[in-house]
Amino acid sequence: MFALLRVRNYRLWAAADLVSVGGTWMQVLGLNWLILTATGSAATMGLVVMLQALPVLLLGSWGGALADRLPARPFLMAFQMVRALLALALLFGSNNWIIYAVALLSGVISSFEGPMLGRFGSALVPSSQLGSALALGSVLSSAGRIGGMALGGVLVGITGPSALFAINAASYLAVIGALALMRTGEMRTLEAAPASSRGIVAGFRYVLSQPAVLIVLALSFVLGSLGRNYQVSMAAMVSGPLSGSSGSYGFLSTVFAVGAVAGGLLLAGSGRSTLRVLLATGFFISVLQFASGLAPNVLGFAALILPIAAGAVIFDTVVSTRIQLDTREEMRGRVLATLGLVSSLSGMVGAPAVGWLCDTIGPREALLLAGAVTTIAAVMGALALARVKGYALTLSPALFRRPAEQPA
């Protein structure tokens, strides 16, 4: 797994990602706590997530088409600089309109940056090692999240959220530096689509012709919207029935990050990014989400958050891996853009919905309801994929044993 770090370009990219993700999650923690303490509304947090997701939904297809045509590196450097400026903008005011504007502009950047990041990252390693690279990337990103949340949880109580915004702005310089130092001659050249199939419509037609991909995307949407918005429900649980503090929120965020690292290590070590693993994990985390609504205290909630986070990373990483490995390389940008559309739609719909449920029926009841819905969706998705792929559904410890070869 860690042999990938011997590749110079990937090593630079991984180190930059570790730093940048740490800064990003410091800002997420600071911004979420700022909004919650200022407004007392989980729905407002959901609105911020929706504003970040909306541009991706509207512009993501264009971003995917451009990613399949344009050189990624200069554009990625420009995007990082703009993100740094947006983080600095939060230092000059914390009113809702500035927060909303930053969230909206961040979403516009993500519309074009997301597909380019995915296509650029897959060019750094051989196609046979893409699954391992994505899993290792999840581990490193989760490690950055742990560091960012742990340090952010300490600083937010000492300096307030402003210091977290400044650190995040500085972290983007690491990505710019890594991109500047990469050796372009050592990157893998991805297949290019012919001129007749480079458009947005051609990308959508291709995705619609892949039934297994469509089922995976649908499952990702349901579990992502109702089962992956813990930045909303976790904060609502802490400030509500768990009677916690900013320290409790930081602690749970760190526990979530530790679980994410564990999930990434398990997946990268097993090398088993198969549809069976995806289905089993989706069912597992949905049942645990239902149980988390019954947690009696912060420690009990943390005990459930840990495996939920591990499973969420496994699920999301396998989705990304299968979406890329089971589709044509020249469609990579547009396929990733479609996945980005699903993710943004799940955030746009799910975050406000979860926030509204937390405010209306209570955080516990919201987790119970969402957990029940995602469990049913996981079972239905398994049945649909089994029918399309023509295999029997089985659950066994062998799911996470390293296979001699890896079928879908």
Automatic annotation (TrEMBL):
Q: Source organism's superkingdom?
A: Bacteria
Domain Major facilitator superfamily (MFS) profile as annotated: residue spans:
1-389
Q: Which UniProt keywords apply?
A: Cell membrane, Membrane, Transmembrane, Transmembrane helix, Transport
Name one matching Pfam family: MFS_3
Q: Specify the species.
A: Paractinoplanes atraurantiacus
Tell me, in one coarse class, where this protein mainly resides: membrane
Q: What is this protein called?
A: Predicted arabinose efflux permease, MFS family
Q: Which compartments is it annotated to reside in?
A: Cell membrane
Entry's Gene Ontology cellular component terms? plasma membrane
What are this entry's molecular-function GO terms? transmembrane transporter activity
Membrane-spanning segments = 12-36, 42-62, 98-118, 162-182, 203-227, 247-268, 275-295, 301-323, 335-354, 366-386
Coiled-coil annotation: which residues?
none
Q: Is-annotated flag, keyword Disulfide bond? A: no
Supply the InterPro entries for this chain: MFS_dom, MFS_trans_sf, TM_effector
Question: Is the keyword Glycosyltransferase in the record?
Answer: no
Question: What is its membrane topology?
Answer: Multi-pass membrane protein
